[in-house]
Design goal:
The complex is a heterodimer of chains A (483) and B (296).
Chain A (H helix, E strand, L loop, with lengths): L5 H17 L4 H20 L3 H20 L3 H38 L17 H16 L9 H9 L12 H4 L11 H34 L6 H32 L17 H7 L2 H15 L6 H19 L3 H19 L15 H26 L3 H11 L14 H20 L16 H17 L13
Chain B lengths: L1 H32 L10 E4 L2 H6 L8 E3 L7 H14 L5 E5 L9 H6 L1 H11 L5 H10 L1 H20 L24 H7 L9 H16 L3 E6 L11 H11 L4 E4 L18 H18 L5
Parallel strand pairs in B: 1-2, 1-3, 3-4, 4-5
Classes of the chains: A mainly alpha (483), B alpha/beta (296).
């Protein structure tokens, strides 16, 4: 079931009302209800893959219990290994099996040996990368003695499959989300209204921005060879907003939904396109994944301590793994490598934490300098996104080559009408304008209008709804579902 | 929670009502205000899809307006023609492309497929009746609502920009610059494929409606067939000729399909380029002046 579907529009109010009716009966019942509702939500896509979630839930629940109850380092390590191997094994098989086999065969072909391999027909279960990482954080934290094992199976099962963030995150840490299943919820009107505002903004980002930008992007990337460098650059820019609207929109809907049920999830995007350098961009983009890799991979590897060589090694490892996490394709690996190249000079010159303050554009000169830094960071990310979106590395390289050719100065054109492209451009600018206004909050419209007279505030929300209605296009899946 | 639920329901109901009200209002204003008036000297119009759009250069045809539009089926042409005839009583003759692709089954996709329905409902949706919209909905429920949203957006933009006159998006001559001149006969043959196998009942139905509309308003309708490259495999050729004999025997049918043209006069297998259009227009005008000397 996806958030922007008719089924979900029926599912949500029913589950919401029943949940708050069940809450007074006790935690056990409310957690059980959330678990079953989440299974229904997930099973609507394909019930057969519920088995994988159940396997992951059982293994991690019992592995963590064993880790916590034992003082023997050997036993503790054994159960951690069981959890790691089983979770990463499932993920590896479903996501990477064909890729590795094909890459293996390709490398043999390079030496003149040819194999005929058709590949297994493996369907990638939706959200597998997200819930696998979430459960891994649980067993690792229990192993590190940062977290007690789950109090009950139902609370743990609810934590693993909590439907708002099950299929595309935010990838919650057990230390933040799991304890929330231990406390009895009380309906909080202000929190729920705030959640609705965030959902509304999430739908705006997804339906108005991402789905409409996708129409233009799909056409440009599918016919890239017939377009000029300028059009390809426009395609890259629109894709940057598509993926942001899509994923940030999903995260906002997920966080907002959680608030309706009395849960608080972590912020996943903090206005990344206003970043002044790539290091800041990565502190603001897909925060739950970046911090996951930081805590469970980068720091255990030594982080930025040690010599230059170690810093370079660790940076490349984290960016390449992060790229590879997105999918079994070399395009993602190259995307990760490009970002590592962007990031390394800042790290080595110790300038990676220069921009940790809020965005400001005060004063003419400093405002212009800051704007130029933002634009530079954005354009660098656009070039990297081209690899992320392209089907092959050679396609992306060809596109980049065209962008850096004289055809960059040709007037852009596409198969869509100029009016349509302009309309999408205008709503993107509108989104940026609103996000700039709300940049100090956790989502753009969190506080916008709160000080206004009530009729004006209501009108503002009605305008957003109207824009959503006006821009409902052909339903596009959330991009991150495929990861 | 009761207050919260009440507020949410109230907001949703209000949002729905405001949206519906705006939608109905925009459609009503467009129905009343949209102007299909052509130049008062235009007494002949050419309608059809891309074949006729690329074949007749109306700058060379005095008293003519080529309003053909690429990918337009008879279904949408009917609504366009209806409004044009209402607003242009001076029109005497309608020349309508009557060719293999326009009656092919694949034409159905041009009626209710996402792309064409999206483009054409935005233009002609406000002038359709409820039953026509219900018909489209019954054929493609999945895409209909998103398309209505696009129609709504177009309507509001038209109103805000005061763009309430017939425009080039509704049709007009299109000069193709490219040609088949550099291709060998073998490579041209390789381009050809049989794409017409069955006929579209809906298209034929709306063709009859178009003819009926012209008859009811005392406008002469002439079927025309623009030339296609000889290698095109028109597997429903027998049908189109038979269909004409059986249903539209009394209608004039000017068949230019066999007009001798060179590769350099074709843009591709189905469309004339600007050189072919010049030749075709001249042949057409000669035919017109000989058949309709009184209208010249």
């Amino acid at each position: 079931m996806i958030f922007n579907s008719f089924e979900f529009a029926l599912f949500l109010p029913i589950v919401f009302l029943l949940y708050w009716l069940i809450v007074p009966k006790g935690l056990k019942y409310s957690n059980l209800f959330l678990t079953l509702s989440s299974y229904f939500f997930y099973g609507w896509w394909d019930w057969k893959f519920l088995g994988l979630i159940l396997i992951s839930t059982f293994i991690d629940y019992y592995a963590a219990k064993k880790i916590a109850s034992s003082d023997s380092p050997k036993i503790r390590k054994q159960f951690l290994t069981i959890s790691l191997v089983s979770n990463l094994g499932i993920l590896g098989f479903f996501k990477y099996f064909n890729f590795f086999v094909q890459s293996f065969i390709d490398s043999f072909s390079f030496f003149g040996y040819h194999f005929d391999y058709q590949g297994l027909s493996i369907v990638l279960p939706v959200g597998i990368s997200f819930y696998t990482f979430q459960t891994l954080s649980y067993t690792i934290d229990v192993y590190r003695k940062k977290l007690e094992p789950a109090e009950s199976f139902t609370s743990f099962a609810a934590f693993v499959c909590f439907f708002p963030q099950l299929v595309a995150g935010p990838i919650e840490r057990a230390t933040n989300l799991l304890p929330q299943f231990y406390t009895k919820k009380k309906f909080n009107h202000a929190q729920a209204v705030d959640g609705l505002r965030q959902i509304l903004w999430g739908f705006f980002q997804k339906i108005v921005i991402a789905d409409n930008a996708a129409v233009i992007v799909n056409d440009i990337f599918a016919n890239y060879s017939s377009f000029s460098g300028s059009t390809l650059l426009v395609g890259g820019i629109f894709f940057a907003f598509q993926i942001y609207g899509d994923f940030s929109g999903y995260s906002n809907i997920a966080i907002g939904l959680s608030r309706l049920f009395g849960f608080n999830l972590m912020q996943n995007f903090a206005f990344p396109y206003f970043s002044r350098d790539i290091a800041e961009f990565w502190r603001r983009w897909h925060i739950s994944l970046s911090t996951w890799f930081r805590d469970y991979l980068y720091i255990p590897l030594g982080g930025s301590r040690g010599g230059t060589l170690m810093k370079v090694r660790n940076t490349f490892i984290i960016f390449l793994v992060s790229g590879f996490w997105h999918g079994a394709n070399w395009t993602f690996v190259v995307w990760g490598a490009i970002n590592a190249f962007y990031f390394l000079p800042l790290l080595l010159s110790k300038k990676n934490r220069v921009h940790t303050d809020d965005f400001e554009l005060s004063g003419l000169i400093s405002g212009l300098v800051t704007s130029a830094k933002m634009l530079k960071t954005f354009l660098l990310s656009v070039l990297a996104w081209i690899f992320f979106r392209a089907d092959t590395v050679s396609q992306a390289s060809e596109m980049i080559g065209k962008i850096f050719s004289s055809s960059l100065f040709v007037r852009p054109h596409s198969n869509h009408t100029f009016d349509y492209v302009m309309q999408v451009g205008v709503v993107i600018v509108l989104m940026l304008f609103i996000e700039w206004h709300g940049r100090k909050d956790t989502f753009a419209i969190q506080k916008i209008g709160l000080q206004w007279p009530r009729p004006l505030r209501v009108l503002f929300y009605h305008v957003i709804v109207l824009l959503i209605v006006l821009f409902v296009g052909k339903n596009q899946d959330f991009i991150y579902f495929q990861f | 929670m009761y207050i919260f639920s009440k507020k949410v329901i109230f907001f949703l109901v209000a949002a729905t009502l405001v949206t519906l009200l705006l939608f109905v209002l925009s459609v009503t204003i467009i129905r009343v205000k949209f102007d299909f008036t052509l130049n008062h000297k235009t007494e002949n119009i050419i309608l059809g899809h891309s074949h006729s759009q690329c074949a007749y250069d109306d700058a060379l045809l005095p008293g003519f307006k080529n309003l053909s539009n690429g990918g337009e089926s008879y279904f949408y042409t009917y609504f366009k023609l209806k409004k044009i005839l209402e607003d242009n009583p001076q029109i005497k003759n309608v020349f309508l492309e009557y060719t293999n692709t326009l009656v092919a089954k694949k034409q159905d996709d041009w009626i209710w497929g996402f792309e064409k329905m999206n483009a054409n409902l935005a233009k002609y949706g406000p002038f359709m009746e409820i039953e026509d919209l219900v018909f489209l909905y019954s054929k493609n429920q999945k895409d209909f609502l998103p398309i209505l949203s696009s129609v709504f957006r177009t309507n509001l933009l038209r109103l805000f920009t005061n763009n309430l006159k017939i425009n080039e998006q509704m049709g007009g001559y299109k000069a193709l610059e490219y040609s088949l001149a550099n291709r060998t006969d073998t490579s041209i043959k390789a381009l050809s494929k049989t794409i017409y196998n069955d006929t579209s009942a809906v298209s034929l139905d709306y063709l009859k409606k178009i003819v009926g509309l012209c008859q009811a308003t005392n406008v002469t309708i002439v079927f025309i067939r623009s030339p296609q490259h000889p290698v095109v495999n028109k597997s429903n050729e027998h049908f189109i000729l038979e269909h004409h004999r059986n249903h539209f025997k009394q209608q004039l049918f000017w068949d230019f399909d066999s007009l001798q043209l060179q590769n350099k006069e074709f843009g591709d297998l189905f469309h004339l380029n600007k050189y072919g259009a010049k030749k075709m227009t001249s042949v057409f005008y000669k035919k017109y002046t000989s058949e309709f000397p009184q209208d010249k």
